[in-house]
Amino acid sequence: MREIIPALRRWYAAGSPFGLATVVGVSRSAPRGPGAAMAVGPGDEVVGSVSGGCVEGAVFELAQEVVESGEARLETFGYSDEDAFAVGLTCGGEITLLVRRVTPEEDTSFGAVADSVTAGHPVTVATVIDGPAPRGAALAVWPEEVSGSLGSTGLDVAVTADARGELALGATGQRHYGPHGERREDDVTVFLHSFAPPPRMLVFGAIDYAAAVARIGAFLGYRVTVCDARPVFATPKRFPGGAEVVVDWPHRYLRGTATDDRTVICVLTHDPKFDVPLLQEALRRPAAYIGAMGSRRTHDDRMKRLTEAGLSRAELARLRSPIGLDLGARTPEEVAVSVAAEIVSLRWGGSGAPLTATAGAIHPTGPATS
């Protein structure tokens, strides 16, 4: 979608209707993933691709029909063993497409969405693809505002909460709801398309606990990097699952690495010669979470050293130490769960208390206020 935004902005600004086909589901070896898009505009101009060439001809005709009728369509394309020349994916996969007409009158939010994508600002577009809700209806969700509607206030509220969660992770995919946003029903299928890169998780200290934290970080949607100055420990073999492994002094690596307000930093070295210079750097830069492992004695010594190094009280208040929530964790995997729980709680302003001891809405409807 990002690649074709310039053409879409031009058509939208001119008030020219265009057909937008978006991959909303894939199976097996489909050539392009969810979010891939192709559009057919005025003069039959085509931009983008949904399959690398396998079904583009059929999608072109489908987009023309949708522009003419104004009715959104959901279509699935797959390879036909019975007729190798039939429209289908020669790779053997299957893709599902939502094709809808876009005009300034029908989608008043599209211009703002396109502007945000062009500027690199995070936004999620939620679109109804199936069920008892207007197919093709779109809701644009930014961290602090919302535009559009999916046809029901309850559905808008539920989808907005989920869209912000997906946006925080840079994730794209389908969610299911009842007609009014009921979470235990699956009548309405909504496609959440997030325009944001996955947030980073930086794990320092290549120990067993780091391997467990890296795995759960990847599960939560983070792009994980593990850094340690000791090459005997910092090896890809010890950290399977796609984590990047870097051999460098932690503070030096962090100094040369960009972070933002979504970045998670987990300091698991619990060695002053690594911890102190690393935390000096971490606590003075943007990050959503900075946690450090160690006993309470280690924590007290670390805070003393950091104070002596000149960190302010406000800077030290950002440090979550000892790292994690009190779950009674013992094993590396259990500790990783406690760390992940603290990260999620801090992101959304959760109390960390059992839900049986709380009242009110279970799922947050907006970003954390803290």
Automatic annotation (TrEMBL):
Domain of life: Bacteria
InterPro entries associated with the record: MoCofactor_Util/Proc (IPR052698), XdhC_CoxI (IPR003777), XdhC_Rossmann_dom (IPR027051)
Membrane-traversing stretches: none
Pfam families in the cross-refs: XdhC_C (PF13478), XdhC_CoxI (PF02625)
Sequence ranges assigned to domain XdhC- CoxI in this UniProt record: 11-78, 118-178
Coiled coil: none
Domain called XdhC Rossmann: residue spans: 201-343
Protein name in the entry: XdhC family protein
